[in-house]
Design goal:
The termini are far apart. Helices cover 3% and strands 46% of the residues. The strands form six sheets. The chain has a 54-stranded parallel beta sheet that branches. Strands 56-59-62-65-68-71-74 form a seven-stranded parallel beta sheet, with no helix packed on it. Strands 1, 3, 5, 6, 8 and 9 form a six-stranded mixed beta sheet that branches. Among the domains are: 125 residues, no CATH class; 87 residues, Immunoglobulin-like (Sandwich); 248 residues, no CATH class. The chain is built from four helices and 78 strands.
């Protein structure tokens, strides 16, 4: 570049310094055209002129020229006259040219002119300097630059002031520009161009001219779609948007100046939906005008200075961006990443709203999908968290399609805001998730062949808070690890016929919850709830939860509740009713942990808790579980194959449990069979019926009405109140502590009635080293045939102990065939080395074909401490003795002791088989009977003791085997049971039950040698 100045001098002056601006001559590949040069009228340079008056006679004017700084700067000076005379006017011209590659800035030109000249005023002129200008623009947007920041801002306009040549023209890269005289300009880029666009302009005055270059760098293209655009053409720019999705999609191929990966697509609102399909290239962002904040902010673009205004976003103004399609609406190109969809709605489609495979990361916010067709189909990618917007979708709905939402190996999160969302009529699955690590919040309703199928996810969270319904396949949850799945809608209705309504399998470390109540399940051959394999916690809470399984034929129905290996959570499983018929089992709980249990509440009326009936095996089977609470539940005609232990079979139950207002009747073998093997437990039975409705018939394998055993190290409490136990095949109630177990039992206000059949009444006892504490108090009827109405037993080692209170029972009776062995009505005995402590008080005993009351020890070193008082006994004509106290058996090694305090009893009508109101026997050498006397001087006969203790009846005598003894007196202190108060319901550690064992139901067989007895111990004579 050259810089010129011209000066006229007319007289001599001192040296004059001029500051001259330098400029690097920089051009793009488009050098100044010949037309431009011609228009400039001279070579690209700047000129300075000055006039002077010459004062000497020298013919050669003098001047010295120097520069203070150079950047490859060449300076030349000429004068218009070779010789001059005094008074002549001289015109000096100086040309400064920068031939270097660097801009010469801050250049100082000092011109020491001839001392014989004098400068002419206002004679200094210089040419303009047009410095290059650089701007930035968003692709497809453009800039509008005002005069103050225009091309003249950094230029030197020269003297006289230069003018700017104005124009409207096409730029080097296909854009358009209008340049105004004041330096302002408007620039519109070519569609899709990204890079640097250049435009040259000319600044000139009478001295010279210069060419400046405007450089505009374009980046971050935004493509615009506006179906209501008034532009004459469709280019996709801010000035000329595409008018349809199809116009955009036709060029969205990444070639040339067409849309490319990473570009942003903006869609304007319209009262009419856009129709078509979009396939996004890698990383493209599609933003609708319904988004909030700003277009540039969402797109991640910094708006440069002077940019044309981007469209304002307008969420919630009543007009929306709605896309519909006859195929898939938005497809994410496989192998891409960093997609963004925001501020728009997808309506009816025949395909899928958003579909993508191996899509990298997708960010969605302020979006909605509604109408026909599948909403989402995504696989192998990540949905980014919505951040401060909280939700990805305002609405996510689908009214048809194979799936509503399908996510396969997708991680991240999916959050939906509005409860008005709905996925309906899905022909396969409404909400399907397979694999991945994702957090899902869906508040909408779900309806389809299968409403929810979640499988093989890891560390995922699902919250479904809308209503759920199905008429086919139900909910399936399988193979999920360390996840949380919650269904909290107000209604969850699953009518699945042959399919499991809720099918849960192998969800290790996961928690699954149904909250909010109204889980209503109806099936035929499918299970109601099936959960197999490990699961950290399963809970069903709220009111109105019901399961009904109606098997179409015998033993073909599904199980209402089938849980094996899954832990029931602390909130438990709560149902209003559970009903099952014609199934293998009605309810099956196996290995369900120690935190929560099953509760069936009913509604306060009989059978309102459901009916389990006509099962091949147990109606209800519980193994290694916690807390079973059944209210108003019927278990009828179960175990029809008679291969299970009974109708209600419980093994290793932990937790405080209750059976209230239940009927457990007519089961094969036993009605209730409960085995507790470890831990601490409490079971309360209130207002229940455990009877059989008919007498024994041929091939009838019925045994006990209610049997419960504590084994090993168990600590069990059982309370039976206001309940009925009728027509048992063996025992009405059998309660036993075995091994090292402890059991506390209470039986109050219960009816135990043979009703014409043959059965024992109540049996309580201990064996091995166990402890039993029982209270049989205030029962209206306990009767038996050929066995005892009440049998109290202690057997086993010296650590074994039974303490029992039998009192205030209004009707105790027993009768049988006099040709067979007949047990006493009330029998208490110690066998082996065990201890028995018994109180038999204030009972009414009738129809005693055997003894009315018998206290005895048999073999070993065991002891009996019995208090028998205030009982009213009536002996039938062919009965045995009223009260008998016995020590010893037909075993010579017996050295046991029986201490009995018999007082204030009334015995009427001694039977012909015994003939005595009171009879005492010491039948084995080494055995001792100790009879406590109430008061007064010690007596020496059994008859006198009977009278001294204010008993009523006739005493015929006693029997003492040589080497044995019967001792009487006031000095004996017979122990009494410590548990004379009926225990109340306490919230202790749970009742645990061990594995059932085979039971011997043979009546009349002697049992219990040495270390314990089997189920027929009460038949010992």
């Amino acid at each position: 570049m050259k810089i010129f100045y011209r000066t006229l001098f007319v007289a001599a002056i001192s040296s004059t310094a001029f500051l001259v601006w330098g400029k690097k001559n920089v051009f793009s590949s488009d050098s100044p055209s010949e037309e431009t040069k011609k228009e400039a009228g001279r070579e690209q340079q700047a000129t300075t002129k000055r006039k002077v008056v010459y004062q000497k006679s020298d013919t050669t004017p003098k001047s010295n020229l120097r520069t203070a700084a150079t950047a490859s700067v060449a300076v030349t000076k000429t004068v218009d006259k070779a010789t001059a005379n005094p008074g002549d006017t001289l015109l000096y011209s100086v040309s400064v040219t920068n031939n270097g590659s660097e801009t010469a800035t801050g250049l100082t030109l000092t011109d020491n002119v001839d001392v014989n000249t004098t400068a002419i005023a206002d004679s200094l002129w210089y040419s303009p300097i047009a410095l290059d200008d650089a701007y930035t623009s968003i692709g497809n947007v453009g800039i509008t630059v005002a005069a103050g920041d225009g091309v003249l801002k950094n230029d030197q306009v020269g003297i006289p002031q230069a003018s700017l040549k104005t124009f409207t023209r096409t730029t080097a890269r296909g854009g358009s520009i209008t340049l105004n005289a004041d330096g302002s300009f408007d620039y519109t880029p070519a569609a899709g161009f990204l890079g640097t666009d250049t435009i040259q302009y000319i600044l000139e005055n009478s001295i010279g001219s210069d060419v400046g270059v405007i450089s505009i760098t374009l980046a971050n293209a935004i493509w615009f779609i506006d179906r209501n655009s008034g532009a004459a053409s469709e280019k996709g720019t801010l000035a000329a948007p595409f008018k349809s999705l199809a116009s955009f999609q036709a060029v969205n191929n990444g070639t040339g100046n067409n849309p490319k990966a990473g570009h942003t697509i903006f869609i304007y609102e319209s009262s009419t939906a856009y129709s078509g399909s979009l396939t996004l290239l890698n990383g493209q962002k599609i933003i609708g005008q319904d988004a909030s904040t700003s277009l540039a902010g969402i797109a991640g673009i910094t708006v440069p200075s002077y940019s044309k205004s981007l469209p304002e976003l307008a969420p919630g103004n009543g007009t929306s961006v709605n896309l519909t399609s006859s195929a898939n609406t938005i497809t994410l190109t496989s192998g891409g990443a960093n997609y963004l969809i925001r501020g728009l709605s997808l309506g009816n489609k025949t395909g899928v709203g958003i579909v993508g495979s191996s899509f990298g990361t997708l960010t969605i916010a302020e979006a909605s999908i509604t109408g026909t067709g599948q909403a989402l189909s995504l696989s192998n990618g990540t949905i980014a968290a919505p951040g401060t917007l909280l939700h990805h979708f305002q609405t996510l709905s689908s009214s048809s399609g194979s799936f509503g939402v399908s996510l396969t190996n997708v991680s991240g999160s999916l959050q939906v805001a509005q409860a008005g969302s709905a996925i309906a009529n899905s022909t396969t699955t409404a909400f399907y998730v397979s694999g991945g690590n994702i957090s899902v919040q869906y508040p909408g309703t779900l309806n389809g062949v299968r409403p929810v199928d979640i499988r093989n996810t890891t560390n995922s969270t699902f919250a479904f808070s809308g209503n759920i319904s199905s008429t086919n396949s139900g909910i399936s949850l399988s193979g999920n690890t360390n996840g949380t799945i919650t269904f909290s809608g107000s209604t969850k209705t699953l009518n699945t016929a042959a399919n499991h309504a809720v099918d849960i399998a192998a969800n290790t470390g996961s928690t699954i919850s149904f909250t909010g109540g109204n889980l209503v399940i109806n099936t035929t051959t499918g299970d109601g709830i099936r959960s197999v394999g490990t699961l950290s916690a399963l809970t069903v809470t709220g009111t109105g939860n019901t399961i009904t399984v109606a098997g179409p034929a015998a033993y073909t129905g599904g199980m209402a509740l089938n849980i094996s290996g899954a832990t029931i959570g602390a909130s438990g499983l709560t149902f209003q009713s559970i009903t099952s018929s014609n199934a293998q089992k009605g309810i099956y709980l196996n290995q369900t942990g120690s935190t929560g249990g099953l509760t069936v509440t009913g509604t306060g009326t009989p059978a309102s808790g459901g009916t389990i009936q006509n099962t091949a095996l147990a109606g209800i089977e519980v193994n290694s579980a916690t807390s079973l609470n059944l209210t108003n539940v019927n278990v009828l005609n179960t175990n029809r194959n008679k291969t299970a232990q009974g109708g209600l079979v419980v093994t290793d139950l932990v937790g405080t449990s209750k059976l209230e207002n239940c009927n457990v009747t007519n089961a094969g073998v036993r009605n209730a069979y409960i085995i507790n093997g470890s831990g601490t437990s409490t079971l309360r039975v209130l207002n229940c019926d455990f009877g059989f409705s008919t007498a024994t018939v041929a091939n009838d394998l019925r045994q006990d009405c209610f049997e419960m055993r504590a084994r090993n190290t168990a600590n069990a409490t059982v309370i039976l109140t206001n309940s009925q136990f009728r027509r048992a095949g063996t025992k009405g109630i059998q309660l036993f502590a075995e091994n090292n177990a402890n059991m506390t039992a209470a039986i109050t206000n219960c009816t135990v009635d043979r009703v014409g059949g043959q059965m024992a009444g109540v049996e309580v006892g201990s064996s091995q080293s166990a402890v039993m504490k029982a209270n049989i108090d205030g029962n209206p009827v306990i009767n038996a045939t050929n066995e005892s109405a009440i049998n109290v037993y202690a057997g086993g080692t010296s650590a074994s102990r039974t303490e029992a209170t039998v009192r205030n029972n209004a009707s105790l009776s027993g009768n049988g065939n006099i040709n067979a062995f007949i047990d006493p009505v009330v029998q208490a005995f110690s066998n082996g080395n065990a201890k028995a402590i018994v109180l038999v008080q204030n009972n009414v005993i009738t129809n005693s074909d055997g003894q009315a009351i018998l206290t005895r020890t048999t073999e070993g070193t065991g002891t009996m401490d019995a208090t028998v008082g205030n009982n009213n006994i009536t002996i039938p004509e062919n009965g045995f003795d009223g009260i008998e106290v016995r020590a010893g058996a037909d075993v010579l090694s017996t050295t046991n002791r029986n201490c009995s305090y018999v007082h204030d009893n009334i015995v009427a009508n001694n039977g012909t088989q015994g003939g005595s109101s009171f009879f005492v026997q010491a039948v084995t050498p080494g055995t001792v009977v100790q009879l406590k006397q109430k008061n007064g001087a010690d007596v020496d006969t059994v008859a006198n003791l009977w009278a001294a203790n204010t008993n009523t009846g006739t005493v015929t005598g006693s029997y003492t085997e040589p080497g044995a003894s019967i001792q009487m007196g006031t000095g004996f202190a017979c122990l009494t049971p410590a548990n004379t108060t009926v225990p109340t319901m306490v919230a202790e550690a749970p009742l645990e039950i061990s594995t059932p064992v085979g039971m011997d139901s043979t009546a009349g067989q002697e049992q219990g040698k040495g270390d314990g007895v089997d189920s027929s111990f009460a038949t010992i004579p």
